[in-house]
Amino acid sequence: MESLTDQFLLEKRYNEGLSPSTVSKYSYFFSLLSDSALDLESPESLTSRNFRSFLASEGSRRNWKPVTYNTARKIYRTYCRWLVREKLLSANPFDEIAKMKEPQVPRKSLSSEQSKNLRYLLPKLFDVSTFVGFRNFAVFQTFLYTGLRRGELLSLSPSDFDPFSRSILVRKAKMGKFRMVPVPDQLFPVLSDYSAFLSKFPEPPSRFFPSRNGNPLTDKNLRSVFESVSGKMGFTVSPHRLRHTFATELVRHDFDIFNVAAVLGHSSVRTTQIYLTADPDRIGRKISCVPLYS
């Protein structure tokens, strides 16, 4: 017989599209409860008092930062909400447990100069006459011009790129939702040529960005490519940083915040608002044009 946590994770993964990495995170935080008074299989033990005690002791012992505390709270709260829905728990104990205040850390995007240098040097960093070289070039261009998450890009299938509507269908989006992401003019010819390259495989690959033998590209493969490019560029380049850079560029060019949220796949514009911070580069250029103290 499946345990309650197994049923919960199965439902989250297959009904809501929870990624394997997120399932692993849930499993990790569930495992921390094994030595506590809380028993995830016995809903009667899941009281706000027990959870408060556990979070305080575990947070202190492991030196949790507010973001880790809030992640644990969110995971346990989601599980308890599921128990309430299944009528195994009368009320969610986390209705009485507040989040910790997190310090506002600005998103680290590439500077204008770094972004310019990366876009200029990308064609020179890869041998685009080979499949692997062209694939890696197309991967970087896709991150730069769509702001996709790493998992979203790795999950794309060949049919998700639609050359007629010039869009990418993101099926494996966060929270199990899907969205259409427009393909801008700078990216369209790259993906069109790459699709033609992809059609040369003896058997159609299941992923839009496969390995050279047609298997799905792994997170480890992708990390290796980014580490190589970071070493050559002299600054850190990652999928997450390119996503931040894309979002920052949209905001910098006065895109409506609701449209930015839609393209990025944010469920709330509150998440997107973190990009509405002061832009030092832009402010510096404007100040230089002002005749101060004249």
Write structural notes for this entry.
The protein has 294 residues and is mainly alpha-helical. It has two domains: 4-96, Orthogonal Bundle (DNA polymerase, domain 1), CATH 1.10.150; 112-283, hpI Integrase, Chain A. Helices cover 53% and strands 3% of the residues. The chain has 13 helices and three strands, in the order αααααααβββαααααα. It has helices at 4-15, 20-31, 48-62, 66-85, 112-125, 131-146, 150-154, 188-198, 219-233, 239-252, 257-264, 269-272, 280-288, and strands spanning 161-162, 167-170, 179-182. A hairpin with a 4-residue loop joins β1 (161-162) and β2 (167-170). α1 (4-15) packs antiparallel against α2 (20-31) and α6 packs antiparallel against α8. The longest helix is centred in the N-terminal third of the chain and has 20 residues, at 66-85. The model has no long low-confidence stretch (mean pLDDT 87).
What's the gist of this structure?
This protein is mainly alpha-helical and 294 residues long. The chain has 13 helices and 3 strands.
